[in-house]
Amino acid sequence: MIKIRHFVWAALLTNRLGVEKTKKFLDAHENNPVQPSSEKAMDLANNRAGILVTLKLREKNVFNVDNIKKEAITSLRDKSLVVLIQN
């Protein structure tokens, strides 16, 4: 199962809190010294993608959960989200 939770979480937080507060919150969440560096990099990249999609959707005045889902699927298909393949 591919997880897109960071993308969606970042998008929803950005809509509520704005970019600056969301980035601070999400970056703090990733400051776990036992988290593998590859997972941290994936999470940070997907957080950023979620922030950016919120700005895009709001600019078009079409921000809603359904459009976040559509953007997540599109981002997975075009490989713009970072996905780690587990054995």
What would your notes on this structure say?
- The chain is an all-alpha fold.
- It has one domain (5-77).
- Helices cover 69% and strands 0% of the residues.
- It is built from 4 helices and no strands.
- The mean pLDDT is 93.
Bulk shape: flat
Q: For the terminal residues, how far apart are their CA atoms? A: 12 Å
Low-pLDDT stretches: none
Order of helices and strands: HHHH
**Number of beta strands:** 0
Helix content: 55-70%
Instruction: Write down the overall mean pLDDT.
Output: 93
Number of helices: 4
Total domain count:
1
Beta-strand portion reads: under 5%
Largest sheet: none
Alpha-carbon Rg, integer: 13 Å
Tell me the structural class.
mainly alpha
Task: Give a summary of the structure in a few sentences.
By secondary structure, the protein is mainly alpha-helical. The chain has one domain (5-77).
Keywords:
mainly alpha; about 90 residues; 4 helices; single chain; about 70% helix; flat
Helix and strand arrangement:
Layout: H1 5-17, H2 19-29, H3 37-59, H4 65-77
